[in-house]
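Section 3.1: Structural characterization of target chains.
Under the original work plan, the team committed to producing a structural model for every single-chain target entering the pipeline before any wet-lab resources were allocated. The record below documents one such target. The sequence was received from the expression subgroup and is listed exactly as submitted; it comprises 504 residues.
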Amino acid sequence: MMPALHIKRLRARYSLRGFGVASAGAKSKLDRLLRSMGQEEFEAALARLGLPSSEIICLRALHVPVRIDLSRADAVVSGAWIEAFASALATAIGRSEGFVRYGSRSQALVDVLISVGRADVSRAWAWRQLGLWRDAAEAIGVGAAAAMMALPESVPAALVEVAKAGALPGLISRVAPDDWMAVARAAIATTGASSIRTILDAAGEGSSPGTRARRDVSEMTRATARAVLAQSRLARSAARLAGLDLRAREAMAIFAILEVDPAALSRLSDPRALLEVLLSDSMASGPKRPGGGDQFGSLRAEAKVVPQGRAERSNSIEQDRGDRQAQNEALPTASIRRCGRTRAGGLLFLLHIVGELGLPETLCAPGSALAGRSLRWVLHQIALCLLPLEPNDAAALAFAGLAPDADRPSHLAEPVTELEQHAIRVASDAIVARLRQRVGNLETPRAALLLQTCRRGAEVLADPAWIEVCLSLDDVSTLLRRAGLDLDLGWLPWLGCVVRFRYA
């Protein structure tokens, strides 16, 4: 696949000395050739540079000087122009000046949010090119909110990266509480949850969770809340922020739920109860060990949230020039992309069947043996039931929507019970049965069939809310292709990420 090229503004200036009265005709010819150059020719020139088609490269400006012999054929003149453009681009990238490179739009969103948390908008020109930043005159908190609204499905995972970078306190302080709630609503909508109003009723009315009407909280809701508190980095980070507005706290709780279990808000009969449990004292102070002390250890960056309305919401941002230069030497997104190798890359093909069987809606439903478990936990257990994999195998983690370096979902969770193990086995058997139907293989033993389908060396690449499985061309299977199992899955609301397959 060739890289795509988007030119926002193009200005050409000709030096036609020596043409005399013929200069008007020469200018008309150059204008005509410039207009006739197709996007495909430019993109082919970029492909010859060896630029990865999956990367996004933003250039502030590109100066392309070229000497053209107008006596040559039109195709030769156009080709010289295009090659000069490609050469100038390669030179600009080689100098590492005036350009920004991202692996994906979600990486760019993380850069926006971390940078706003650090009061640094020096790359706003690149964000505007990607549609993640608006008018340069608006407050940076408004710009950050607009960026999140442009990619709401990536916000929970992006905020995890912001928390890891220690920039969450600054970001929260610069985005208005009402804007946080608007982003939370948009993020919920991407999961397919139909009861956003129920989830957010009474939100932002200034009441505290303790003064609201008491609800009868089911054990399933409490178990889900325990899983979120145990596994969510956002919940742990938000618990340490003093003076946090209630609306911002509610938004952080919603993002924490979506971080751990994107399907939870859709399957619970009273999702508002889950939100209120998270907003109770247990989230405000953080889970404790019986003997005292923080269960999760100390954060590297602890800071009070700065009240709204202070100078940091001003459009003019003054920052020490040395700090600004140090931040610009390396993008905050440099280490965001996680990579892992696996011998079971084909396991991700089975996510087609998971969705087809409706398992995301039924596995953790109220009354089921797995009620109270997160869908990520259940999918990870199913992966280990299907194949003899290590719990931290990149494919097993990706099957649960997690990056290769993520903690396994069973970390800090209650051990699996016999009843749960039986339910997991039943679900895996249903997946294998549907696999037999899809590939038309009713004879091969279960273990052999799974190995034929899943045993594929692969590299798993993960950005926030995005997973790509890179496989070898030697592993292309006409049988699996005919069954549609290696087609891109796209956005999976119940997994909270995009899943793609690429052969190279």
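Residues 202-215, 284-329 have pLDDT under 50 and may be disordered.
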